[in-house]
Specification:
Length: 292
Amino acid sequence: MSRTEGDTWDLASSVGATATSVAASRALASRGPDPLIDDPYADLLVEAVGVPHFVAVARGETDIPEEMREHIAVRTRFFDDVLTDAADAGVRQVVILASGLDTRAYRLPWPAGTRVFELDQPSVIEFKTRVLADAGVTPSATRVAVGVDLRDDWPKALQDNGFDAKAPTAWIAEGLLIYLPPEAQDRLLDHISALSAPGSVLATEHMDPKALTGEWAKQLSALSRRHGSDIDLSALFYTGPRTAAGDHLSELGWRVQVLPNAQAYAAHGFDPPTDSLIAMVGDSGYLSAHRE
Ligand SMILES: C[S@@+](CC[C@H](N)C(=O)[O-])C[C@H]1O[C@@H](n2cnc3c(N)ncnc32)[C@H](O)[C@@H]1O
């Protein structure tokens, strides 16, 4: 299986399964007497998708190394912090791009008047909306779900659903960029820029271009297969050269900050990752960009 222009999926297939995989990791990291994060709905969503391996991960029934739990905890907290800092600074419009099984619109303590837009492919968005509604879980902000492909004219879909380009916005694109062709990534960042009033912030992953060469995607896939996943990440990623998101955003006038993985780990009291998926991707980490 490989990627094609306009390909689609649900939460058990292709790129959609990666959303279930990270939700399973969040469910796992939310377990136990001293959990690393608290995502109270990840479990429910992964059970509803029903892929046996991910259900087993979410239930803590597989042998997932501590490092993998730490990875998802660091990642989750980074994006949580960007959004809660923006809310504290007065931003009331949030856009979660490629929201997958992200439950931030339900679990973060949003100030009154906050609107959270979630964008993902239609069947992904519809699934999460339905499962949480059926379970009686209600959003903690005004949630606006927009089913759209992020290679298409998503700015129009967003604006048709009430997005206000004059208001500052907090954007996150977590676990998305590598699933977009390089030119679609550039276009996505251009669109975000065009829709971002002063005071906006954007967070995404920083991918170290020096590390993302050769066989890295195959090595990542092999690692995740060793942990029981049958997702072939190397068939889902677009691995060719691409402009680093931070460089592109700097050119568009954003003030860009990169938090390397080692520092992100240390900030939460974890040792830097060693022989793991994270170590394979060099100086990668997390990026936040501000629009002044
Ligand atoms: C690794 S998951 C990350 C999900 C979520 N951000 C998280 O961290 O839990 C990748 C997500 O990107 C979405 N995605 C990838 N390419 C997309 C596209 N072209 N249009 C819409 N959604 C896309 C997938 O549907 C999936 O939900």
